Amino acid sequence: MQQQAQNNVFGEMPTRLKQAFQCKQKLAEQNIYFAPIRHHSPACAYALKRYIDEFKPTHILIEAPTSFEFLIESLQNENTQPPVAIFAQAQSAHNQSLNNKTSSKQKTQKDDEDEIAPLPELFSAYFPFCEYSPEWVAIQQAKSIQANVKFIDLDWSKQSALKIEQPALNWQQRSLMSERYFAHSQYIQKLALKMHCRNHDELWDHLFELQPTESLAEPKHFFDDVFAWCSLARLDYEKDVLLQEASLHREDVMWNCIQDTIHPDHKILVVTGGFHTLALIENLANPKTAERFIVKDQKQNWQEQAWLIRYSFNRLDALNGYASGMPSPAYYQHIWQNLNQDHPQTPEQIQFNFFQYLNELCHFLDQEQVLDVTPYIALKNTAELAWQLAMLRGHYQPSRYDLLDALQAALIKGEIEDGQQYLFTCIFKFLSGQQLGKVASDQHSPALLQNTYQQIKDFRFNLNDTILRNRKLDIYRKPLHQDISQYLHLLEFVDCHFAQRLSGPDFVQGASLDLLFEEWRYAWTPSVEARLIELAEMGNQLEQIALLKIIKLQQDNEQNGIGQSALETAKLLALACRLGLKQQLQLLNQQLDGYLETDQNLASVIGAAQQLYYLWHGRTLLNLPESMVEHSLSFAVYQACFLLDQLYDTHEEKVEANLRHLKSLHELILNLKQYNIPFNHPTLDTQQLDLLDLMYAHIDVNKINEFHLHQLKGAIHVLQFLDHRIEQDQLQQQLKLAFAIGSDSEESVQYLQGMFFVAPEIFVQSKVAIDALYQLVSHWSEDTFIQILPDLRYIFSQLTPKQSSKVSKIIAQMTGLSDDAILDQVLSHIGEKDLLQGVQLNQQLRSLFEYDHLAQWLVNTPNDTHSEINQQIQDSQMLNTQGADHE
């Protein structure tokens, strides 16, 4: 942008800005130069590259925390390929020591209450780089000209300390390159409106990113324009806002670092976000009148660590929530590559590069099956519109917004509907990109991160990008897949967010135990590395960390009063088995056996038995000692039988729960018999012991009658019949008594609920039960029937359609109605007009199928389906005729 154009756009400069330009010129005479930038801007990066080549500074000072300087060598390593990021963490050392102190087991309970301290806050931040980040370009150019590189921003630990003083700010997991100032600047908003741009991103592209290469090759003029842009945005902000944002504290540190570098032999280039440049120039030009904002030294109270990690384009994308990024980083990567081509950018070459990029985009959309036209037509129409829009808006090549507008006009006809949103999702996905960077193998990173990354790589997962992929594991037949599955469960347990299990047997929850395969969805993202770095303090291997987490879960159980719960201990045992933590299995199993003897909660003991049964099912896959699981399982079932006196609780919620417990215990006993799982106990004579006899021996029928537990009574009668404890005629007699005329309606329905809960097929197969219930319902008053109807509906909803049909036929026979008569009564209201409307609707549906090119689907419908449909139509016509005759 030429100076004349700048004056036309920015208008008359404020006095403060004019004075700043004069100070900037005086500082340049002292060999202090400034490159105000927008983070992750290809235009700024290219101009900065030319600027450094032009006057070759001896010192390049960059806006980044000074505590990150030790990573400069890693950033300059030839094996480090962006996108990468510095991931930093700061934690109060005082809080951490307090937390460690309170976790000591030597304290009494009173001491615990007196010394409980909150968990220390952990402040995390990212400082990302891509190829077109001006900071990255400055670091690489410094290496090529052998210039000194210094980071001059406030340490992250000190910024974190300021966060505590400003609790209203959300600094947790933040970016250290925030540019929200520009988005909220009133000046930029008004300028965007004046120049017919939708937001500050489009305005920035229009004024800066779309400057031709020859304009960017004059970096001094370019950075003067950026300086004016950023300074005018800065003038919108009051001092109190900047103070709360810690901008003034950070600028104080930057200013002092620049002061310390000034020397007659030094040629200094200061590379900072343009928002800070105005204040730095003013303070350097007038150091005596500058206001100081000093942050106290926090080194003794705070611990700070930083690592270089892989980063990804989708994490850089401003559309995905990154506060400092430009939108669509893969698109700007394409612009950056074009700017750095060896040969000059002729108009023909610029056009060819755009067509090539657009061609890749159209083929990607075709692969995603979101195009209604061929890729060639999409390319042709979009390219024509994009170039016409670029010409109309005065761009030498289509901008990102020109491209998006052209795609919308070319690929969407009419209004944008919800169904077309997926098209734009795919477009933005392509423009965002999934590229993942690389870091040198010998760079500074925690052992946990290195070990985990190498192990996952050895398991042949694709770690080259952040695209979600699926992996299917044959866990029963392939030992390697068993190891992979166990490792993925470890990663999932410690919340690394690397992989998510989509399907497969779950031996902890007892779900899908019949599946032979596991399927996982995975992606290696920067958040995975960040999480592993967070966990690195706990150990170098995932197994260590998982073990510590299980111990922590045990401690939580103790604090919550369930430390001696058989169920909770069984869950921990199952978790340790799933994760392969063999060193913890024996201890947890011993604890479980002890708690099974002392736990007096029926639900807990039966729940523990169920959990052990799931483990027994997966014993081969989990490589468990068979005798260990069998002993604990059978002992849990044995102990549960002695707790059956808890069934007699009359609270409504307890009655339903106890029904489930009884049914679960019965199923467990039958499973033990079916699989010949032995019951051996060192102090009991178990050779002649029958667990089913033991269960029934501890059920007191007299107490069930005494407390009117009719649901439980119905369930027990069905179980006795299934176990051949009573004969069919005895069951029929019990059913007659339960549904006898004059019986209490609620008690009869409760008895029926108990039956259905255990085995509804018993009722379906018993004409005696159906007849008795029918006779009982026939004698109910209308009010009683309406009161009981919701319960009856719920009970019979548990039947399958076939079972419902069978019951309805039996009732139809009792009432003297045939099937045709029932249908006649149900469908007699359908008249000729209804039938004609149905035919018309059918014709409309056929027309819609033909319009959507799905007519062949009707032709390919199986013959038996057509026959069934035709027969239904004929039946309807016949019934309609019968209905007309009745009328």
Question: How would you describe the overall organization of this protein?
Answer:
60% of the residues lie in helices and 8% in strands. With 887 residues, the protein is of the alpha/beta class. It has a four-stranded parallel sheet, sandwiched between helices. Helix 3 packs parallel to helix 7, helix 15 crosses helix 16 and helix 35 (710-722) packs parallel to helix 37 (745-758). The chain is elongated and about 110 Å long. Residues 1-10, 95-119, 168-173 and 861-887 have low confidence and may be disordered.
The helix fraction, in percent, is: 55-70%
Assign an overall shape. elongated
- Major beta sheet summary: 4 strands, parallel
Through-space gap between termini: 89 Å
Number of strands: 11
Proportion of residues in extended strands: 5-15%
Structural domain tally? 5
Looking across the biggest beta sheet, what order are the strands in?
1-7-2-5
Integer average pLDDT: 84
The gyration radius over C-alpha positions equals 38 Å
Q: Given the helix and strand composition, which structural class is it?
A: alpha/beta
Number of helices: 45
